[in-house]
Amino acid sequence: MLSSLRTVVARTTVRPSTSIRAFSAGARALGGGHHAPPPANVGEGAKAGEVATDENQSTGLERFQLMGQMKGVDVFNMEPLQMTKQGTTKDPIIVPSFSRHRSIGCTGFPADSHDTIWLAASADREFNRCPECGNVYKLDYQGGPEEDHHH
Questions:
Q1: Beta sheet of 128-129, edge-to-edge order
Q2: Under DSSP, is residue 46 helix (H, G, I), strand (E, B) or coil?
Q3: Which is nearest to 137 in space by CA: 106, 113, 112?
Q4: What is residue 146's three-state secondary structure?
Q5: Which of 50, 66, 92, 117 is most buried, taking the most CB atoms under 10 A from its CB?
Q6: Cβ count near 107 (within 10 Å)
Q7: What's the rounded Cα separation, in Å, for the pair 23 and 64?
Q8: Closest by CA position to 41, among listed 75, 14, 10
Q9: What is the C-alpha separation between 151 and 145, in angstroms, rounded?
Q10: Rounded to an integer, what distance in angstroms lies between the CA atom of residue 58 and that of residue 41?
Q11: Mind listing the pLDDT tens digit for each residue in 23-64?
């Protein structure tokens, strides 16, 4: 029985192909031996023997935010809306957004008159109203039609 099991295992074992090569070999062959510069959303990493800083090792959105902070720009516009009036259906509080759906935290008018109530605002609805204070919000969708897709 053991010898027949060895025969079955030997027949089903995958043998490596002779045409296997490293991923880096293809890049060197196509690039003429030169490496492409790293993308802007990837840090260069730390030098040997040094501890990496945030600027060295951050990637993606974190790097985008960090580079913006270094230039003095709030890339995600995290400032709260200026509540100078009570939002009504005739004069709603406009909330700019690059997404068709956004969460809005209402604290009432005047500010902090009630606990934060989170509203699921949508550009598909004409208005979004806070159930506690009655403030009316309107989502101002600023993105293009190509950005309105779902994964």
A1: 93-97, 136-141, 128-129
A2: coil
A3: 106
A4: helix
A5: 92
A6: 18
A7: 28
A8: 75
A9: 15
A10: 8
A11: 454 444 455 555 665 556 777 777 888 887 888 888 888 888
Tokens of residue 82, six digits: 């200026």
Q: Is the dihedral of CA 77, 79, 81, 82 positive or negative?
A: negative
At residue 79, what is the residue type? E
- CA within 13 Å, CB half, 8: 5
Q: What is the mean pLDDT of residues 98-114?
A: 87
Mean pLDDT of 79-103: 86
Band of pLDDT at residue 5, cut at 50, 70 and 90:
very low
Three-state DSSP class for 105? Answer: strand
49 backbone φψ class: left, alpha, beta (φ>0; ψ -120 to 50): left
